[in-house]
Amino acid sequence: MEIEEHYLYTKEHEWVYIEDNIATIGITDYAQEALGDITFIELPEVDNEVEQFEHFCSVESVKAASDIFAPMSGKVIEVNADLESGPGLINKSCYEKGWIAKIEISDQDETSNLMTHQEYQKYLESLE
Amino acid sequence: MSNPQVVQSLSMSEHPLKHTPLYEEHLALKARMVPFGGWEMPLQYDGILTEYEYTRRGVAIFDTSHMGEFMVEGDAVQSGLDRVVTQSIKDMPIKSCRYGTMLNSEGGVMDDLIVFRLAERKWMIVVNGATMEKDAQHFSQYITPKTIFKNISYQTGKIDVQGPLSREILKTFIHGIEKLDYYTLDEFILLGEKVIISRTGYTGELGYEIFFPWEKTALLWRELLKNDKVRPAGLGARDVLRTEMGYSLYGHELSETISPLEAGLEKFIDFQKDFLGKEVLLKQKGQGLKRKIIGFVSENRRSPRQDYKIFSRDLKEMGVVTSGTFSPSLNRGVGLGFVDAAMNLTSGEKIYFGDEKNAVGCEITKRPFYKNGSLKN
To answer: For A32, which residue in chain B has the nearest alpha carbon?
Structure first.
């Protein structure tokens, strides 16, 4: 299972990469593997305010539907429109080309609720 | 991400799961295993969409050893067989197959099945894995004492070879297989065994079902996979393939509380003969059905899922989804479900699936959804 260094993680298998006050959000290798072939994503709307760990967007795979939760609070400033026609990008490149959205972070302190890559690695091992 | 709930039908967790003769093969191929109708079966190997493509464009093999087989020796009618199944069997040519159902006394579907006429007085009945024990009991209750009835399910493994290239591949090591027509069967010599092969399947593609001795089925599986063009496919791909064809799956579109008329299977019922449940069906025909099955195609890539609600054009709840999937060939979601028959819905009509907060538009569509299958090639 691939895990990126310098990213932060949630127990629900979302990742976040923070640069200044912008957080890029996606789902982890574990999540895309569990879902299987992703066939649809309902992206969040730009300018929407989201709350940490609240419903953020929905993904569907061939055999399952699943909700994605926001790893941090803030305002959505950009979404990955490539996913609308090619949601399978999440399967192919979940940490790079398959990013879902960028948000303007409203509270940097919320990172204390997230896991480092080492912590997430241990968390995944505990799930086995 | 919320835990993705993969739809698993007829899972019976109170019993230990049964294993087919190919269980070790699936583990060696690193398949993702799931409970299915009391059996531990492969959901996928390389990925559902990849395995779907193998089947629609090339050839894939499926482990269907969980399915049940019964042997009956006797006259079609005097044996009692004709009365248990809904399809006409007296007029079946020797070495042909015919699809139908078996009903309970309330006219509900106990199972859907295929009758194989092996000889004038010799029959094989192929039933679902999850219902096999129950079916065997029902058959033995109605088959006359003088008739030989044998449940050979645990001696019989089965591999389905499906896809437009299946004939080309099989003819290299099964002499005469290319002569087998759609929905017929014959005996062939394969790996030194005399076995039954039928030209049937559940995918909409040209394909074969090979009935093989249980303890030797793994040898056949390995032999088939020696050809690079042959790939294994799991239940996930099988479900996408059958849903695109609009085929019923027991536990979804068919159950003991669903009449075959509601499920749209009237053409597999012979009302000229006597069969169990006939009176109830005749009454239903006279009074009109309460619900009926429909197929529908989503207006986008969103897929319907089992138990989602179905809403009318003006968003009144009128039914429930029984099967749903993403259709790779249409690049849209497709589904099957039951709706209130009084709505008098017709093809082309716009309806919705989902829930009150999130309803997705879809169009009632004639089945099959996928029309370019090679099954009759």
So the answer is: B1
- CATH number of domain containing B328: 2.40.30.110
Contacts of A59 in chain B (CB under 8 A): 1
pLDDT tens for each residue of B313-371: 999 999 999 999 999 999 999 999 999 999 999 999 999 999 999 999 999 999 999 99
Residue A29 belongs to some domain of the structure: yes
The C-alpha atoms of residue B287 and residue B269 are separated, in whole angstroms, by 18
Could you give the CA distance from residue A126 to residue B189 in angstroms, rounded to a whole number?
51
- The answer to whether residue B10 is domain-embedded is no
- Sorting pLDDT into bands at 50, 70 and 90, what band is B4? low
DSSP secondary structure code for residue B25 in this structure = H
- The SS3 of residue B137 is helix
Q: Tell me the three state secondary structure of residue B140.
A: helix
Is residue B160 in some structural domain? yes
B287: which residues sit within 8 A by CB, 6+ positions away?
none
Q: Give A71→chain B minimum CA distance, Å.
A: 10
Q: Å from B40 to nearest chain A CA?
A: 18
> Is A24 a member of any domain?
yes
**DSSP codes of every residue in B215-276:** GGHHHHHHHHHTSTTEEE--HHHHHHHHHHHT---BTTTB-TTS-TTTTT-GGG--TTS--T
- Cβ under 8 Å to A: B residues 47-66: 47-49
Contact A40 B303 (CB under 8 A): yes
Q: Which of residues 305-334 of B touch A (CB under 8 A)?
A: 305, 325-326, 333
